[in-house]
Amino acid sequence: MKVRIAFLFLLSNILCQSYKITILGYHATDVTQIIHTPGEIEYIVQNRGLLDLIWPTNNLYSAKYDSNNFNLISWSKKIQQGSYKRTLLGKNITNTSISYDDEKIVTITNPIHTILTMLAMVQKFSPENLDTKWFNFEHEGRLGKARFIWADSSMAWGGVDSILCDHYRLDISITDSSQNIGEIKDYFMKYIINDNFVRELWVSRSKKKQIILAKLQTPWVSLFAQRNSDKEN
Question: I need a labelling partner for 131 at 20 to 30 A (CA). Which of 5, 84, 107, 118 fits?
Fold first, then answer.
């Protein structure tokens, strides 16, 4: 009985949601988001179909953060793209720097956020807490600011029915790349901060907030990440 209770408690503190990424209407990638309570978010990214044949990808991104203000504690990634493999671990040290793999030190201004903590935060706070507010931002050694701009309340398709959502634009402004340790082959980290791309999120307004739809608009094509409601936990 105690084991069962412990297992149920564990499940109640984990929110798992899957998404399907489409490009020009084709299913290209599966993404699984796992939010642990308190203070941890993970994304598992796997290419599918023709894209998986051309460029098989199985990546894991995760971040730990202060559950009250979503300030970064640490983050990591494990990249497997074709024959290319890479791991990276960044730790917030005394709120003045991020140590990467205990070797490279990136000087920061605290508090600091990353793309992962921003995605966690938007699923917790209301527009009143987020709209137009700039947050210090770090991205593999690049420094700048990021903010959510609330556009409107609108309906987004949730897989079974339309869901009332807060619609945001996510602005990312990189102002200092002098400490950059990023790599070209990690396409997610490379392109998510691109100045020429428009990032939009539709987040459910219900008590249990979730990203229902995400859109990345590039000059050439749009990428959509749609929630798979049939796999919701």
Answer: 107
List the one residue out of 24, 6, 7, 5 whose CA is nearest residue 222: 24
Question: Which pair of tokens denotes residue 129?
Answer: 């807490």
Collapsing DSSP to helix, strand or coil, 121 comes out as: helix
* DSSP run (H or E) holding 69: none
Question: Taking Cα atoms as reference points, which of 87, 32, 38, 98 lies closest to residue 67?
Answer: 38
Q: How many CB atoms are closer than 10 A to CB 40?
A: 18
Query: What is the C-alpha to C-alpha distance for residues 114 and 137, in angstroms, rounded to an integer?
Result: 6
For 77, 181, 207, the CA distances from 101, given in Å and listed in that order, are 11, 11, 38
The two three-digit tokens of residue 42, written as one number: 């993970």
Question: Do 84 and 55 meet the contact criterion of CB atoms below 8 Å apart?
Answer: no
Q: Give the model confidence (pLDDT) of 147-164 as tens digits.
A: 999 999 999 988 788 999
**pLDDT, tens digit, for every residue of 51-109?**
888 889 999 999 999 999 999 999 999 999 888 899 999 999 988 999 999 889 999 98
CB neighbours of residue 156 within 10 Å: 20
Element (H, E) at 112: none
| Nearest alpha-carbon partner for 56 in 77, 81, 78 | 81
- 196 by DSSP, 3-state: which? coil
What letters, b where the CB count within 10 A reaches 16 and e where it falls short, cover 79-117? bbbeeeeeebebbbeeeebbbbeeeeebebeebbbbbbb
Do residues 147 and 135 make contact, with C-beta atoms less than 8 angstroms apart?
yes
Tokens standing for 137?
A: 């931002």
